[in-house]
Amino acid sequence: MAHSNTLPISTAQGGQDRLVLDNLIRRELKVGDPSDPAQVAQALLTRYSADPRAQAIGQESRGLPFLQAASSAPPVVQMLTAAGGAEWQQALDDINQDLQHLSTSALVKDVAPEIRGWGQAIRTTLSEGYDAARFGLDPRNRDKGFAMRRQLNDYARLARLVGAHTPAMLTDFRKLAQSLDEAANLLLVIMGEALANVGFGGGRYIPQVAYADLQTRRDAVIYALRNLVGSTQQAYGPDEWPRGLDAYRQLNDLLEAQGQNDLRSLLIETELARTMDELVRRGGDNTADGLRSVASTSLLTLERFRRLVAVSRRGISPESPALYAYLEALQLFASAFDSAGGFRLMKIARPPLLFYGLYGSTGLDDADRRIVDLATRRGLVADAIDCFASSCCQGNRTCLVLLDKLLYDIDRAIDLYGLGFANFGSTERRASAYAFMIDQVLLAAPCRAPGANQPSLLPAELVTQLNAIADELRPDLTLANDPVFADAVARAQRLAAQLGTLMQARGIADPDQLRLRGTAAPPQVWDIEDLAELNTAIYRGSAVVPPGLVPDSDLQLDAYLGVIEQELCLQLDMERNWSQLVHSMVANCAQIDVSLSQLQAVVQAAVRSVAGHDCRSGAAINLPPTLETSLDSLVDSVERTGLGRPHRTLSWQRRT
Question: From its phi and psi, is residue 65 left (phi > 0), alpha (psi between -120 and 50) or beta?
Fold first, then answer.
């Protein structure tokens, strides 16, 4: 008879469940001894002191009947008036009137079902967006608010595009677009008000994940630790190597040998749970004091987590999946306390006059001033485009479509700056992609008089505002104050010098003077346009050098400029996908193909001005082969489709 060497599953599982329950009581009820019924009862009464049943229990303890609790005044629920309440209602009324007018107009009766579909989708978006924006402090609702705002902007741009090719209803469609823009802009203001109502008082910490996600990440760390130390019943099978236990033993020895004994406390479940529970409890306090408390303490508390990851990552041999799962869980939990973007929304919701003193002593930094200026100039550009639309001739509708695209792009740049955190980080760098779009639209043939080097057909004030926005999106950067940008400039110059020297040695013409530009001392102030221009010159030089001699590209430089190229290519993909939708809304004689093709040409020109080449086609999702398929390919030269696999029945066994 075989005897099992393991404990009964029910016994081990029962002890594990008891430990989980004890930790839950300690965390939620703040009791020191979960087995003490007096402590638990008092903690429950304290936690639910406002509940009528708890009050009735208190009355019973004083000798009164259980159901005859002393009368108390009804609780006062503090209702915060949603920001922009009157403005939001006005925007809703405007949208409803515009949709009603379009859906009943005889001039667009052929597309009445499509417009009614617009109305249903727009009203749902408005409702969902407003509900999410009012709780903008919550990360999930803030993300949803931005998604609903973008969807409203999409419908606004679609309305302008259809209106530009429906001359009889140009003004009607543009009025709908204007109303949608009002609602989309109000969503930003409402989210900013939700943040401002907390009263940061100078703090800049905004939660990155919701409270429920913090609990999930906390539990993931505990489960990973149990799997590492082998305290779970299913940690290792009878035929598996105990790599987790081996890594756990080596990790203890490593921390002892390197003098990092304080980190061994993170390998004890009770201490690790206590540390994380304290952070989770503070992270769930969405008041101004609570958020500032988390911002000032989480970095020091989580420093132990990050130090353990740094010490342990390459100190264990052989590598252990259980250890790496634990370290990854620690990193995931620690990253939840990094501040999220969105603080600049307050700069839009509140007038700049209030930021001196009331919201801290830091005032407005450079990026804050840029987003405020973008929001101001955006309204001026929208007014100028509407005036141009009412006066332009029918043959110039393509230029109007390009200008409407720029208005949409400015909204996207404002969103990106609203989510940014650095002066010119990756988010702000992505927003600079739309500055290159402005350059190409101003140079596009539909917006200029016929002939070479002819002046622009656009109003001078509109051109001035667009150029000012492009300058805001591509600010001058001092190399000494922006080490990341300075490193990208140095890498571009190094690559240009290598390529220019090679071209000179080979006798290849160098019209861009790459060698000179690569070896010359860079000016102290650059902008992203200068770097992009040097990058395109390097690409042009690489095209004329023999392929085997081209210097390897710099991956970090490609990554620095890659976000700009990616944003523009995403816009190009969107333009291509809109073609079928717009064709179903306008007449065949409207020449919509001319406008759409010009839009794609402008985006492609913007991509070339940054990367030197067109957008590359996106790679399809390609799953890796299975182990059996790989062995088939290696042993029997079988293709992944199964072609060439020998039949399992030998030829002499087959029945003929």
Answer: beta
Burial (Cβ within 10 Å: 0-12, 13-18, ≥19) of residue 544 = middle
pTM of the model: 0.79
> What are 100-117's pLDDT values in tens digits?
999 998 888 888 888 999
Helix and strand element counts for the chain (H, E): 24, 2
Tokens of 291: 């958020």
Buried b (16+ CB within 10 A) or exposed e, 56-77: bbebeeeeeeeeebeeeeeeee
As a dihedral over the C-alpha atoms of residue 589, residue 408, residue 121, residue 101, rounded to 10 degrees, the angle is: -60
Q: Find the Cα–Cα–Cα–Cα dihedral 55, 56, 60, 65, rounded to 10°.
A: 140
529 Cβ contact list (under 8 Å, min separation 6)? 435, 436, 474
Tokens 């769930």 correspond to 284
Distance of CA 631 to the CA centre of its chain: 40
Residue type, 98: D
Q: Which helix (H) or strand (E) holds 88?
A: helix 85-104
- Tell me the longest C-alpha to C-alpha distance in the chain: 105
Judge whether 399 and 447 are in contact, CB under 8 Å.
Answer: yes
Q: What is the per-residue pLDDT across 517-533, written as a single tens digit (0 to 9) for each? A: 888 877 777 889 999 99
Distance CA 129, CA 142 (A): 9
What whole-number distance in Å separates Cα of residue 250 and Cα of residue 440? 60
- Looking at the DSSP bridge assignments, the partners of residue 526 are 477
> DSSP string of 448-502?
B-SSTTPPBSS-HHHHHHHHHHHHHHS--EEGGG-HHHHHHHHHHHHHHHHHHHH
